[in-house]
Design brief:
Layout (H helix, E strand, L loop, with lengths): L8 H18 L4 E4 L6 H12 L9 E4 L1 E3 L10 H8 L11 E2 L8 H14 L5 E4 L21 E4 L2 H7 L12 E4 L2 H5 L3 E4 L7 H9 L7
Parallel strand pairs: 1-2, 1-5, 2-4, 5-8
Antiparallel strand pairs: 3-7, 6-7
Helix pairs in contact: 1-2
The structure holds fructose -6-phosphate.
């Protein structure tokens, strides 16, 4: 594990974009695992800039997003489908058929999750997974006490996560209380992981992640 500390959010975003860009340049058919939230926003903007400067080609890239709220449709502005399209995908030359995001409106959760894991495996696994981290230490929508052997699954959101995500919604009551998320096992199978954290709100979670014992609840 390599820990890189930089001066501020902007530096972090540029650094992260360089890592993702290197992956895309070195392997033009890379499989990228992507995250949403505030943290990677500027990284996506930096990648779009590199694309516009004709330094990056995403035409053979495949992506798998970490998670999606359960019960909301793709065109809902709070969905992660909407976020990815409007913050990244519509600005680059990725093929629609290479974009994978869990279906928050699925009627068959188990099948949707299994099919997602199978598709990741069939694509050869994730070459580089980008992650953020929640204020309570969640990864994807895996709360800190999860089963490390979990693959993609339905998650009941922790009260703290609902509170933290309320900033994106009109009120706390509008925040979905469950989500589909890659599990820790799925995430840990990635060949490389780039975890981004910025700002004082994340300091405790980062400290605990780096310094405290890893607990397994299986
Ligand atoms: C997003 C995700 C979440 C976020 C985390 C941090 O796809 O899976 O785990 O990475 O909630 O969110 P921000 O970046 O908004 O602080």
């Amino acid at each position: 594990m390599k820990i890189v500390t930089v001066d501020d959010y902007s530096e972090m975003s540029k650094f992260a974009a360089k890592i993702v860009a290197s992956q895309v340049i070195l392997k033009d058919n890379s499989v990228l695992g992507l995250a949403t939230g505030d943290t990677p926003l500027q990284m996506y903007r930096e990648l779009i800039n590199l694309y516009n400067e004709e330094e990056l080609d995403f035409s053979k890239i495949t992506t798998f997003n970490l998670d999606e709220y359960y019960g909301i449709s793709e065109d809902n502005p709070h969905s992660y489908h909407y976020y990815m399209k409007n913050n990244f995908f519509k600005f680059i030359n990725i093929a629609d058929s290479n974009i994978n995001i869990l279906d928050g409106k699925t009627k068959d959760i188990e099948r949707e999750c299994k099919a997602y894991d199978n598709k990741i495996a069939a694509a050869g696994g994730i070459d580089l997974q980008v992650l953020g981290i929640g204020v309570n230490g969640h990864i994807g929508f895996n709360e800190p006490d999860v089963n490390f052997e979990a693959e993609t699954h339905l998650v009941k959101l922790d009260e703290k996560t609902v509170e933290s995500n309320a900033r994106f919604f009109a009120s706390k009551e509008d925040v979905p209380t469950s989500a589909l998320s890659m599990g820790i096992k799925t995430i840990m199978q990635s060949k490389k992981i780039l975890l981004l954290a910025s700002g004082p709100k994340k300091a405790e979670a980062v400290f605990k992640m780096l310094k405290e014992d890893v607990k397994r609840f299986v």
